[in-house]
Design brief:
The chain is an alpha+beta fold. Helix content is 18%, strand content 22%. The structure holds zinc ion. Residues 113, 115-116, 118, 145, 147-148 line the site of zinc ion.
């Protein structure tokens, strides 16, 4: 937990490009569990440690961080010290929003229709527009599928692990998509803290 991941210093991703984040969010994006209880549970379990003073809603990783995530690939060492400079691993729990927010990034691809399973050929314009309606509280904001011609709520489209919607979420920075996967232990913890089931996905700004 003290050595920088060599892949991050050898030019795979220049420092100005966001490596990525792992996002943990309730499966039902309308749900908004209690944020304080969530933070307390993550802290007691050692997933997070002290708040980072100059970053809003951010926490240092705790002693059990790397046991609660499964790192894929061999010998990935995570930089977790902000003093080193460059990307470092930390956890952000943003304030909850009144309505589901769309979490997406440059890695987000066209989602699949929940009915006919076709990838939308309209990606991304109508989705961007409809996500704004959802964020304003229009719960059933829908996008028409060019393949089957039916409108489906934007939240019901299949985003795989490249995006999603949430009111309350936990962000793990900076994690390349797929580099770390939540363990069953972490999902149990989140469920215990919230009373609901969680999912995960990845976003690169
Ligand atoms: Zn369809």
């Amino acid at each position: 937990m003290t050595i920088k991941d060599p892949r991050r210093t050898e030019g795979v991703a220049p420092p100005s490009i966001h490596v990525g984040r792992l996002i943990l969010a309730p499966r039902d994006s309308e749900l908004c569990p209690d944020r304080d209880r969530l933070i307390r549970t993550l802290s007691e379990a050692g997933f997070i440690a002290d708040p980072i003073l100059d970053r809003e809603c951010a926490f240092l990783v705790g002693p059990e961080f790397s046991a609660l995530l499964a790192f894929v690939g061999c010998a990935v060492a995570i930089a977790d010290d902000p003093q080193i400079g460059g990307p470092f691993c930390h956890v952000v729990v943003p304030q909850a929003s009144a309505h589901p927010r769309w979490c997406h990034g440059r890695n987000t691809g066209a989602p699949r229709c929940p009915a006919c399973r076709a990838r939308s050929s309209d990606w991304p314009s109508p989705f961007k527009q409809v996500a704004l309606e959802l964020a304003r509280g229009h719960r059933s904001a829908s996008v028409v599928c060019p393949s089957c011609g039916r409108a489906h709520p934007i939240r019901s489209w299949d985003w795989k692990q490249q995006g999603g919607f949430a009111r309350l979420l936990v962000q793990v920075e900076e994690i390349f998509p797929g580099e770390a996967v939540p363990t069953d232990g972490l999902f149990d913890l989140l469920e215990r803290a919230s009373g609901c089931a969680w999912r995960h996905f990845y976003v690169q700004d």
